[in-house]
Amino acid sequence: MHRFLKTTLAAAAVCLTLASAASAGSKLQEILDAGTIRIGVSLGGEPIGFRDDKNNPVGYDVDVATMLAEKLGVKPEFTDVSGDARVSMLVANQLDLVVANTSATLARAKAVSFSIPYNRAGLRIIVQADAGITTLEGLAGKKVVVGRGTTGETFLKSAVPTAELVYTDNFSPDGVLLLKQKRVDAGIEDSSMLDYLATKDPSLVTLPGLYSNDPIGIAIAQGDPDFQRWVDMFVSDYIQSGAYQANYKKWWGEKANPPTLTPLW
Predict the structure, then answer these.
(1) Secondary structure element (H or E) that encloses residue 224, with its range
(2) Which of the ends of the chain has fewer CB neighbours closer than 10 A, N or C?
């Protein structure tokens, strides 16, 4: 009963905040007037975001973004973004918000604002099963595919400066293809993506351990506290209502253990 009450109150608060912020001339009013919300999603890899056989955007993040648009009562307009474009397009007001597997880092927070986490992930390394690489240090002198402008790039440059970085703007399909064709020895990306990939391809294995524990937040432009409050309340409702658990297990399997998230409201 207690959980039901908290969830009901959180949902009601989302609606009340929507009404008050919209009337105050927040970004919310622009979105409501337009009837659409421009959302950046990263379609660079399963299960976070990709395209189905009909070329439609699907995945964990796409589901979160769709739920957010439904709560607003508007139509989502998706744009595929990755790497540095996630931030630059938001700052340039080409997007209303970004749900694109974006780690909420101090560096990025200088340019954009972040919601409370709607997911968590850590950097993991995936290698060719027959490459004989068993440690982080084993990447020295090896070709490692990495997303340009990602936290993985920053980490690897510091941790293994002698690794030969092979850049891609979209880890999937481009980085995944390089791995499958054995044109690189290893790759570094979010554990959520690489754990999924390793279950699908026996020629690839992930190394044990995570090299970060990153909060994944919804990014919005700075300077709009009303809009950020509404987004925070949406994420709180997403967590408390059970939608988070259901969505995570939809994409990673019923036996998956979703990372623990803490609602703010």
Answers:
(1) none
(2) N
Which residues lie closer than 8 Å to 136 by C-beta, 6 or more apart? 125, 159, 160, 207, 211
Beta strands per DSSP E along the chain? 36-41, 50-51, 57-58, 75-80, 97-98, 112-114, 119-121, 123-128, 143-147, 164-168, 186-190, 204-206, 214-216, 219-221
pLDDT tens-digit series, residues 158-214: 999 999 999 998 888 899 999 999 999 999 998 888 888 888 888 999 998 889 888
How are beta strands 123-128 and 204-206 bridged, if at all?
Answer: antiparallel
Residue 23's pLDDT is: 46
- Give the CA diameter of the chain: 61
Query: In angstroms, rounded to a whole number, what is the distance separating the alpha carbons of residues 235 and 218?
Result: 9
pLDDT, tens digit, 9 for 90 and up, residues 2-31: 554 455 555 555 555 454 445 456 899 999
Residue from 128, 123, 136, 131 nearest 212 by CA? 123
Omega of the bond prior to 202 within 30 degrees of 0, cis? Answer: no
What tens digit of pLDDT does each residue of 213-236 get? 889 999 999 999 999 999 999 999
CB 112 within 8 A of CB 221: yes
Task: Answer for the pair 173, 43: CB distance below 8 angstroms, yes or no.
Answer: no
Count Cα atoms within 13 angstroms, Cβ side, for 41: 27
| Alpha-carbon gap, residue 142 to 5, rounded angstroms | 54
